[in-house]
Amino acid sequence: MAKTIERKIKVTLQLPCNLVDQARGLVARKRYPSFASLVRASLEEAIFQAEREQLLQQLDAASLDPLFLMDIQEVSEDFASIDQMALRSND
User: Where are the alpha helices (DSSP H) in 1-91?
Assistant: First the structure.
C-alpha cells in the first residue's frame, strides 16, 4: 500500500521560556524524538479534546431535543426483537 505524504508547513511561535525549557527536557530524556514531535503531539491532543468536548455538548443538546428522543425510541422499538434474540443466543 502506498504511503501518502502529509503536506507540512513551517510556523514560528513565541512561547514562555519555562515551557520551552520543560519541552527540551522531555526531548533530552527521550520522551519525544524532537521538539517538533512534542508540539505536534500536544496540538493533536488539544484538538482531539476540543472536538470531544464539542461532541459531548452536541449530545447534551440532543438529549433535550424531543424529536431526537422520539427517533431514538422508535429505533429502540424497531430493534427490540433482534436485541432479545441476540441476548437469548448468548445465554
Answer: 17-28, 35-62, 66-89
pLDDT band at 41 (very low <50, low <70, confident <90, very high): very high
- Rounded to whole angstroms, how far apart are CA atoms 42 and 20? 13
Smallest CA-to-CA distance from 59 within 50, 69, 70 is with 69
Q: Is the dihedral of CA 78, 80, 83, 88 positive or negative?
A: negative
The DSSP letter of residue 33 is S
User: Amino acid identity of 91?
Assistant: D
Find the distance separating the first CA and the last CA of the chain, reported in whole Å.
42
- The domain ranges of the chain are 17-89
Average pLDDT, the chain: 92
Q: Answer whether 0.85 is exceeded by the pTM.
A: no
The sign of the torsion formed by the CA atoms of 39, 41, 46, 50 equals: positive
